[in-house]
Amino acid sequence: MNFRNILAEIEKTDPEVYERLSGRRDVLRSFGSKVAAAALPIAVGSMFKKAYGKTTSAVGDALNFALKLEYLEFNYYHVANNTGGLIPGSDQPGFQTIEAHELSHINFLTNALTTMGVTPYTPKNYNAASNIPAYIPSGAYDFTKGGTYHVFEDYKTFLIVAQTFEDTGVRAYQGQMPAFFGSANSTVLQQALEISCVEARHAAHIRYVRRLSGAAAEYPAPWITNNIPPIVALQANYLGEDNVGQEGITITSLPGASGTIPQASATAAFDEPLDAPTVLALVTPFFIL
Amino acid sequence: MKIWNTPAGGQVEEMESGYDVSRRRFFQLAGGIAGAGILFSACKKTSGPTDVYIGSGDTALLNYMYILQQVEAAFYTQAVVTNYYGISQSELQLLTDVRDQEIAHREFFKALLGSDAVMPIDIAFSSVTFADRTSVLTNAAQLEDLVVTGLIGAAPLLTNTDYTREFNKMVTVEARHSAYFKDVYAYNTFSTGVGSNAMDHSNSPSAVLAIAQQNYILTKFDSRKLPN
């Protein structure tokens, strides 16, 4: 292994490698003479980990944030699926599928973080030794949001909050994607997109369930139309979804089937990202802090 | 039946041409002949001088997605015009909405590409029976799934991350479409076909373009500089 060659190779993709390592100039110098060959791989490993630690930490933070939302969703569906009389028989297979998906996402993200050397998020009162560790029986979540939503007593309310969680989840994933930009993280970006598409399928399904049940005047489509929320109280989760500008192009000015693209379809055609602080503010009331 | 995209962005229909039939018959024949590999290799050309060049780098990736969005928009345009027997008011409303969303995607790419945009392409849905509900719903879901795999596979290859962000915004909407068409066809099947770990699939641009080419597109492309 030629250490100078390694640095030269890294410099091709990261011209700033020497600057990143400059704080460790003395260490670099010492490689020239004193360090025993056997110790080299470990020493090099820890040196690069320090230099690139910021990037790893940004990816880890983004994945841990996604994991936190997956736990919230899993617990929501797990309680619902185990609450007799809440979900009609015809709708139960769908929600069992969704619950299983959220658990798969928890496991996948946990493994990915562990592999990266980042400690995976676990919810409050997490007990690794329990029957279903991802399920937190008490003390972590308040899905009623302080008694506002009777989600496990009223099916319509359950659906409203489920739809909002899924739509917000899709938007939250979108908001985290920039952490995975760049060729070094292209696999993470791909996997995050693969997960977010399944969240979008959940959102579409729940919206369709609500459409079939004749949900009020809103009569939801499987996609987000303008910034229309299921109920006014959840408007904040949909702010910005009425955006019609993409890359400086006004979608509603483009030619449509007749005339220009209708506003409803122009907004529905693009899911819009939400940043982490906004998502946290939206979901925190469902957590017991 | 062939559907032509006019330069103005509209669509006109044309009755099934003899070319389609003869082409299909060729494949049927070829499939039944021992040593068909020779026939295929004789016909297979990598990229000839008449093929439509789609560009390189990000331009190629944007054109690649412009091509797929043209296919989707043409599919739903036809599906709305000759809507299937027994369509409900809700289904027609959502089908029309999806059509307009796909036209939005198509026109977005066209505007983004400007003079680099490939010309409107020649599309044929020879395996779709637009009068039949099952045919339309299953083909719609299949087409949406193809575009989902294509967008996921292409997003990390873009060098301009503004474009990556747009691909991200669109892919979850295509997944919503897929889920809807599956649900309408068979309730609770919104995620049928997703992979292990409950994750959607991804595929490389060249692989997705080849599938689209085989199933829906008559125009031949020079995609040798398409990133993969």
What's the number of domains of chain B?
1
How far apart are the first and last residues' alpha carbons of chain A, in Å? 51 Å
Radius of gyration of chain B: 18 Å
CATH classification class of chain B: Mainly Alpha
Number of extended strands of chain B: 5
Largest sheet of chain B: 3 strands, antiparallel
Major protein interface = A-B, 61 and 60 residues
Question: Could you write a compact summary of the structure shown?
Answer:
The complex is a heterodimer of chains A (289) and B (228). Chain A has nine helices and two strands.
Task: Throw out a few tags for this protein.
heterodimer; A: 289 residues; mainly alpha; 2 domains; two-stranded antiparallel ribbon; 9 helices; 2 strands; 1% strand; disordered N terminus; B: 228 residues; Ferritin; three-stranded antiparallel β-sheet; two-stranded parallel sheet; 7% strand
